[in-house]
């Protein structure tokens, strides 16, 4: 069901990660299906044992015949922005709903500088930029996470929930618990060392450090 | 942030400015001396109210002080629904109870957002897509816990304006009886019809046999909102017709009558608003203000009907299962304050959220001002403490997993804190519970590294201090040694975005008096 | 409706008046007022915010005047005291700290906003709690766009002054309202019930307060510690007994017996709390002595806070028995109890007894049972029955037990010493038939009924107060009463002005207590000589 992704990317014999031309780092141990339907924005990290279900993409509504190649613009199953880190054991599964007896998949969009913690299951419709998803969270189908959101570890974001910008959510089911401060994601004048990245901030340095 | 150990908190000094201690000095003379020398104690209950993560702090560049959420004043820029992100016009928000008046609803059981689903085709499951093609009755359905408005017997003929439809329907599907109002009362201003969805009737029944024979709602206690407006109309009527002079107690005013509800004060007030009839002679005046006498005037007696209602409630309690009764948190969330059973609950429209500008409480300088658009996350003004105060971060040295991402760290439970004072900010360093990999262990030395980042363009001098022994439940009695109590952090060298950083090594030594022998001398350093 | 001047106007005139030389401590404040509000005339057309706050021991109810219910009730539990950014309760694997032992002195204290015993109270902590609660309520529920013009605060009528000072100063600093009016909770309760005289029985958290109100004036006040805290403690005891029994039986495999605290007890109270009728309780207590309770109907109680969750089966009767023993104290004799822990019914009875008889007959037919525990189904009926029983057995006799002596009079068994309202209602038309039978000279004739006099008489009769019978009246609650007052713009006597309070504190008010006792003390007309009159203040019953 999922093919080991190694074909279209430049092969580097050493190291755990394969680095693409645009600087994406994809673990050799990641399970990626439907490569053609996946877009990585550049300098994005996909870590080990991540499942990217690009094969679950939207079918043309006129015919039920699955089209393997991107014939139209709407066949993106998963698109991920820049400087985003998908931690080990995550599953990115495009959301779907049953429509007239047929399962219809919808694209899953993830913005820039998003950190998805280990072991998350993501079926969101969209995750905006500068979002921090804590370890072991479940983002159920069609939820939308707006900018500057922090999702506490172990949360279950219920289906269709819209998380407003700048909020902290947690719990099962998740609810808005508070707000991130004004200083969310601001990294002060530091480079390297322990402070090379902060939650919700620019993840460029973190991406660079992944080897 | 507090979740991942280790974390730092900054103490804002605003709590000390408003202290009431000086007023009580007379009662506790002995405490007057240590008033000034009182150091900040991060373990006290009060400290929870003045410790903040640095991300939540602002900095006033006029006062040169950090400003925590309670020493700023806020101004609302816009209101919006957190669910549909629709900006609510400020003219209607108060009437709508500061809740979304569109089709947003939350589940009263689990707080998840509800979705509108069609019931037309019985065959497909109700989580079918609510397309416009589907007609027929609609329901609100919780995709998380599978609750739906069918559970309270409500369906909607149209998929739009659910708020309005819900306001007209009682639990059980009966239409809400029209509100009876006094025709003369000028209640329209105070009772906008859109508030209805806030205030739901106590449902006619709490027995589980669903709507087989629901009592007519009139037999039950009246809607509190109706009763409130009856009372309001009654008082208004009384205020406008009563003559103040007839009231007892008007003539004699003494200090003992100064209760806020004393007849004299009420009378004067009545007089104030009923001054048009003031010219009449007292003998021919109308009767004095009386009390409400009928249900139409808002009087409600605890009578046989109410007792019967209580009996029904008790019977229902006895016969039904535990989770058919609403929990404490469900009741607190519920818009229907009289909900007792789960069947009494109603869908909750979400409270609006606001975007706010913040001003310094002392000099009123604007410290933060987000852009007006709901979807924009940018700020016009943002004066952060992060950019003006040294940032402190602390981590264990040579610990197994400090490699980012630290999302794998155990959700430890810091219970005791070590205090370091850094001029005005305060750093609280937690010790972890024994299960944590960072936990303090008896007779072992743990090293911590404190890193200071100086965002300023001037160098700063740092003095570190620590209590000689830890208190608290975990790691109590552990000794703390600071290897470098004084040092200087260089200025932020401009443009290269590379703050000068100094590293201070701190070694924490432990002395565990709770071990069996109690001789925990450790070779330090 | 007449236009009232805006507070900014008053403030401005007060500031400029030579009578009241203010130091411009609030200079920044008044500037901001002017800029925010604009001209006073524009203010009149704005939607005004009357804030109403009701302080209880565990809740702070906040809302807008003119609405029937509060917007939000802020709680003061340990979870509300967390640091900003501390979300540990929401993380997986979080366990609360174990509850305090049931025998501990301060059981449940961590859920309180304050303790009325201020000797041990950290006032600054109270200030912090109020400040955070008000700020949160404003942020999440009120969302004020304009500063409120007026604020009404509902407080218990017996209230420590240090706490009063803390409440006022915190409110003035966190919500910058020009003046705060204070109203007593019992009066607000009476207003919320639509009566002018009543006996308010507030079964609250720390204590049950019994206040008799006549013509909106508080007359007597008594208290008993039998209230919510005690109820929850009894319930927690019951739960812990059951849990330990269960663990002793070995029904549960995990080793450690959990201790259940206030949260679990409250959950049981909310879901299954009830009160029996007096007769049932008496027969049940007799039956309990004789036979075993194995065949009683049991209710399942699911406790999810333990690990693993347990389901307890507790006899339904026991829950009522626990609540009743906390409130009605049938297990212990009156003489064994201190004055402050008398049973509720006895405290009510004594309050009634202490009233003058004409006030008593009004008040006893207007007993208002309110407070959080009053929502327990069956409680109001039980209180009524207990009172009826007391009145029936003792009569209105202040001596409860004559011992070997004999009462001077035989005790009355008359439940309604004064005629019921039906009897007082006159039937004025009886003379038609009489006039037809025989001739009566006009001078001796009963005059024809005067329609005007009749209507007056009818009206009087209709409005003749019901009195002398025991009757319970429901109230909308103190918050709603205060909301009514605020919306009707009834101005309370205790109005605390911001500038003056910040300058002088409570001491400035206490000083004036004697000064404004005169009949021309102050007019409530708002526009008349505002500056001069604002010099005099009173704290009323809180002085």
TrEMBL record, chain A:
Signal peptide: none annotated. Residues 60-76 have a biased composition (Polar residues). The keyword Lipoprotein does not apply. It comes from the Eukaryota. Gene3D superfamilies: Hexapeptide repeat proteins. Residues 1-22, 57-76 are annotated as: Disordered. Keywords: Cytoplasm, Cytoskeleton. GO terms for cellular component: dynactin complex. It is found in: Cytoplasm, Cytoskeleton. Residues 1-10 have a biased composition (Low complexity). Transmembrane segments: none annotated. Its main location: cytoplasm. Belongs to the dynactin subunits 5/6 family. Dynactin subunit 5 subfamily. PANTHER family: DYNACTIN SUBUNIT 5. This is Dynactin subunit 5. It comes from Eremomyces bilateralis CBS 781.70. The lineage of its organism: Eukaryota, Fungi, Dikarya, Ascomycota, Pezizomycotina.
TrEMBL record, chain B:
This is Dynactin subunit 4. InterPro entries: DCTN4. Residues 202-213 have a biased composition (Low complexity). GO terms for cellular component: dynactin complex; stress fiber. Residues 177-200 have a biased composition (Basic and acidic residues). Subunit of dynactin, a multiprotein complex part of a tripartite complex with dynein and a adapter, such as BICDL1, BICD2 or HOOK3. The dynactin complex is built around ACTR1A/ACTB filament and consists of an actin-related filament composed of a shoulder domain, a pointed end and a barbed end. Its length is defined by its flexible shoulder domain. The soulder is composed of 2 DCTN1 subunits, 4 DCTN2 and 2 DCTN3. The 4 DCNT2 (via N-terminus) bind the ACTR1A filament and act as molecular rulers to determine the length. The pointed end is important for binding dynein-dynactin cargo adapters. Keywords: Acetylation, Coiled coil, Cytoplasm, Cytoskeleton, Isopeptide bond, Phosphoprotein, Ubl conjugation. It is found in: Cytoplasm, Cytoskeleton, Microtubule organizing center, Centrosome; Cytoplasm, Cytoskeleton, Stress fiber; Cytoplasm, Myofibril. Belongs to the dynactin subunit 4 family. It comes from the Eukaryota. Residues 23-44, 166-225 are annotated as: Disordered. It holds the Pfam family Dynactin_p62. Signal peptide: none annotated. PANTHER family: DYNACTIN P62 SUBUNIT (PTHR13034), DYNACTIN SUBUNIT 4 (PTHR13034:SF2).
From TrEMBL, chain C:
Coiled coil: none annotated. Residues 1-22 have a biased composition (Polar residues). Gene3D superfamilies: 3.30.420.40, Actin, Chain A, domain 4. It comes from the Eukaryota. Signal peptide: none annotated. SMART domains: ACTIN (SM00268). Residues 1-23, 399-451, 510-529 are annotated as: Disordered. This is Actin-like ATPase domain-containing protein.
